[in-house]
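Mods, move this if it's the wrong board.
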Amino acid sequence: MNVTVILIEMAVFAAVFTVAVLASYGGDKKYSAAGVHNYPPDIQEEYFKTHERVDVSYQSKNVVLTKGLGVLLFTAFLVVCAVLAGAKTFWQGFAVAFGLMVWIGLWDTCFIDWVLFANLPMFRLEGTEHMDEAYHQKWFHLKGMLFPGIVFALIPAALVGLAITLIH
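Not the wrong board. Structure tokens:
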């Protein structure tokens, strides 16, 4: 497999993911159940004091649909990445996809969550603007990346491995 291609894919994946996150927090999209779901519980509680409470659990139809769509989009993107990197077997495809998913989890946690989410007003839910400390909860984001993030990463990685097997 080609390490240079994988490094380029890491940079492209981070850029595409960042643009997608920023776009998903524009306008009222962040107020959807799937958007509010990503906020720490204390921010959610403060937000729901002044707004209609919606189901933001992992069992919520909107959250399940959003996560399911995410799996499909990640899988499609990662199949292309695995093919370009030269994956020829299930395990090579799995390794490329899982590695890129772990990378994007780290990028999301350390840059998007810890830097952008914590500091940019565009991420503040209405009525929670005063909660600076809550928006800077590094442990909340790290825990989410570790679990369920790593478990979530196994799904597209396995699907990519299967796709690579079917391609070759």
